[in-house]
Design brief:
mainly alpha, 434 Repressor (Amino-terminal Domain)
């Protein structure tokens, strides 16, 4: 399942990279990332960490505020992904089912 905000961030990074005249390989090397990972990120199929976003922001001279400007997170999408990531029969701490000793 793809979350729209992740897809949009990836698209913005791709556009900025291309405007800077960089190949995926060049940006990946500068950012200490795998080129295939960067490609997945740009397509919105990779959920990057904040550290990865920060690295790309620095290398592309793309302020985080500008990168995320106008983006909104869909609670419905986020909740659906959270449920899917737990898998069948698993319960997380957010279910109100804490383990003993909590």
């Amino acid at each position: 399942m793809q979350i729209e905000v992740i897809r949009e961030v990836g698209e913005r990074i791709r556009k900025r990279r291309m405007a800077a005249g960089l190949s995926q390989a060049e940006l990946a090397a500068r950012s200490d990332l795998d080129r295939l990972y960067l490609g997945r990120l740009e397509r919105g199929s990779q959920n990057p960490t904040l550290l990865v976003i920060a690295r790309l922001s620095v290398e592309l001279e793309y302020p985080l505020g500008e990168l995320f400007a106008g983006l909104a997170v869909s609670a419905k999408e986020v909740r659906a992904v959270r449920r899917l990531s737990r898998g069948p029969g698993r319960r997380g701490a957010d279910d109100g089912e804490g383990s003993e000793g909590d």
